[in-house]
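Dissemination and training. As part of the outreach component of the grant, students in the summer workshop were shown how a complex can be specified as a set of sequence lines and then modelled as a single object. The example used during the hands-on session is reproduced here so that future cohorts can follow it. Participants entered these lines:
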Amino acid sequence: MTSALETRGLGRRYGSQWALQNCTLEIPRGTVTALVGPNGAGKTTLLRLAVGLIRPSAGSVRVFGLDPREQAGEALPRVGFLAQEHPLYSGFTVEEMLRVGRKLNPGWDDAGARGRIAALDLPLEKKVRSLSGGQRAQVALTLALAKRPELLLLDEPVASLDPLARREFLQSVVEAVAEHELSVILSSHILADLERVCDHLVILAAGRTQLAASIDEIIASHRLLTGPRGEAEDVSRMHEVVRESHAERQTTLLVRANGHIYDSHWTVHELDLEEIVLAYLGQDAVRRREAVAS
Amino acid sequence: MIWLSWRQQRTEAALTAAMVTLLAALFVPAGLHLASFYDHGGVAHCIAGHKNPACAQTLAEFGSRAGILRSVVPWLTLLPGMIGVALAAPIVLDLEAGTYRLAWTQSVTRGRWIATRISFGIVMALAAAGLLAVLFSWYRGPLDKVFGRFDGTSFDLEGIVPLGYVLFALGLGLAIGVVWRRTAPAVIASFLAYVACRLFVDGWLRQRFVAPLSATWSINARGPNLNNDWVLSSGVSDRAGHLFGGDFAALQACGRVAFKGAKVLNAKCLARHGAGYNHAVWQPDSRFWEFQGIESTLFAGAGLLLIAFAAWRLLRAD
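and obtained this result:
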């Protein structure tokens, strides 16, 4: 079975600036993937490439084996996309937005869409421009879901929402995943938003893929090692060192372990997902841990 | 898709319809009045060649009956420009507001979205301009028989040129809007570009579509009847048709008092001063439809090219 999303050496350039470079990843069907990275890491670029809004400058992107731009007629009905700013026609009523969805999507699930709007207590005759940010996000999500996509792409879906609306929105996504066979890719620059709902993780930073794996695998393989200075090389021969920092007599390594770590020189700590992600994003997780330890 | 096009352009469509209705409310009664005066007030009789002393007065009165509306009419040539640019605006707004990301990620392909939205704009633009052209061709019908239809104000509003103008304005609005992606500046820039192109064609290019006719005749002879033609230039000239450029006071010497104070000019004397003839350059009324065809093709062709460019840009945009 083809993957929900597959990229090979995918890159996109704006002028001389690469927004995304050499991105190779494969996202299996039926997963909920968090796409995490700092602002400007290329998350939006990757999602727009996946839905054919923009074309690659290098490499290729396939959704269910289809080119989203050249085979748009076949690919578009299978992909739902929710842009960061939740675009809706501001002069339209909620009812009219549903009509837009119905007119533009042959597979439209009208009963489902109306059910969702009713469950959210959104008045159908209200204009989009008079809705709150959270309500607008829910209407946009309703549109994306009622299209009955097999892959749903959500670009920073909760960034503009308050904490309550965030929880409600993500709850809606979880319910939709449970109800339909749906693969989801959500992007965010804050992992905490997504950790609860995702089973896969892709970390993008500086326009490149830093890590792409299931969350269980990530937690199981990453360890923090502290030990005597000067023996880091032995470790890096066996395992992938993500970050290292050296104090006067002590070295701290964050590694993606290739099997078990037996070396008795090192003290091995387990890490939580946030610490691992922060390390990949080049932030001070390692040093913070040291500060706590000392 | 058609419903969406209609829903997104209905404000502009309603404004256009309201404008056409308002103009019809103004010009239909005025047109009926003119037509009635033309038939029953003796104008048709005078035009048919039955000259009588009252005719000059009848024709002058006919002109003045058109009243204040007649002075409003030349401004109405801006309408096809406004309509075309206004109908392009909703599509540009989709780009500015980012809602194209919603539209282009539904199941309908981008190509179909572009084709439907633009076709819808074209149909509405042509319908509005067509109605205006019919209204003004009808209103000015009697006036045209007396004063001709080839001068600027009537040529621009009658026949088929308004269709070309509206396509041109729509194309400008789309092309500039698709490149600029900001609605308000694009609308203003497109309208200004429309006016500039129209001024250039009206004031310079149109009279050169086909070489004009010209004639030179002695001031004592009867010249051609140019009443309904588009006279580009006319005046006192020498025998070869060079317009008299000297001081008219010098020609006073050629006059002599004949009787009761009326002066008669001596043709031979005038000829010595480089005058003595009349010269006119004109486009004859019979070329009206030929000129309409050339100008419509020019503007509609440019408009369609601009529309094609905008569609191509949208299709490739990312």
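Chain B is about 65% helix and 10% strand. Students were then asked to discuss how this feature might be tested experimentally.
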